[in-house]
Known about the structure:
Largest sheet: 5 strands, mixed
Amino acid sequence: xxxxxxxxxxxxxxxxxxxxxxxxxxxxxxxxxxxxxxxxxxxxxxxxxxxxxxxxxxxxxxxxxxxxxxxxxxxxxxxxxxxxxxxxxxxxxxxxxxxxxxxxxxxxxxxxxxxxxxxxxxxxxxxxxxxxxxxxxxxxxxxxxxxxxxxxxxxxxxxxxxxxxxxxxxxxxxxxxxxxxxxxxxxxxxxxxxxxxxxxxxxxxxxxxxxxxxxxxxxxxxxxxxxxxxxxxxxxxxxxxxxxxxxxxxxxxxxxxxxxxxxxxxxxxxxxxxxxxxxxxxxxxxxxxxxxxxxxxxxxxxxxxxxxxxxxxxxxxxxxxxxxxxxxxxxxxxxxxxxxxxxxxxxxxxxxxxxxxxxxxxxxxxxxxxxxxxxxxxxxxxxxxxxxxxxxxxxxxxxxxxxxxxxxxxxxxxxxxxxxxxxxxxxxxxxxxxxxxxxxxxxxxxxxxxxxxxxxxxx
Length: 459
């Protein structure tokens, strides 16, 4: 019987904790060279078919990446991006089709990630968690480009199919996915993009109408939804709108491939996914049916996994008894100045903001999943059980990445919905102490003060 990847993660992590090497240099170089070779062949094939001349800079970029010369590869990629990225963001007329552009992007974007050991380790953990033949939705740059680089063959879906849920709204990207996976994976037709946009626009119009006609009732438009009326027509823009459409297309891929397992590395939250999530190592399994509860053995595995991660990177794992004040003190000590001499974590991690942001955000997703189960719990005991796990996850997420405004926001929103919402003030003040010029955290702090004043006035 095949043992699912997530079931062996605890033992794999125990071994990894004893040996902090992520991969040997030879293993990394060999896998990257194979990846670069595959992507170069994809580009050359498309260019020949569509009679497009690939500039010499692209060949030089592939050469630099194959040698591990990441700064050179990144600089060459930035020049290519200004001339050829679709859509035509820079006002040029030389935008390439997606089948040509995305293989180049997958190599060029790797340069900003490749020098952070914490991201290589993250990629290895994803490969342990996701079974062969599954579909993996990667959200962030590390969650996408590290996985495509270390796959046996990204183009062949080996060991699993890798798709970013953040660009499904782009016709060029959906065509690219179809060109690679169309014979083995059911990929929605391009018409679905327009249909998803129309459905979203209709929904927004209804919610805008409600908010306009009933100003005294709770707002139905979501925070961050940019909706305006121009010449009598409703227009939408911004990440919330884009991700709503991405979410609809991701749902179609999920529904049309019912025989495959799905896993997600979340970036922007897609509402329909959250009730389907269960923890699987650093990421989430997307189950066919939302689980009514999370069993004790699953929670124990998740606890042990993240305890090991926290010990590995920062040398301290918050437990149930850790107060918010202690969590903030530890975060400020570790991420605000050089840690003490007896520090038992990974100093390189503390100097690697992208690694820290990645691991903190991943743990924060787990906190949001537990918080949702706490909210929907059918009994007081279940509510306490899920609340305990949500609090632990958010504490660990903050100590792993206290400068990540998304991690701070999610923990803040959780604290504001507890009997002691003023705890959120302690958290955001700690975050601002570490990153005083972070505009998003400043906005979170203002929101907290407004919410506390409102709650005090409504007692």
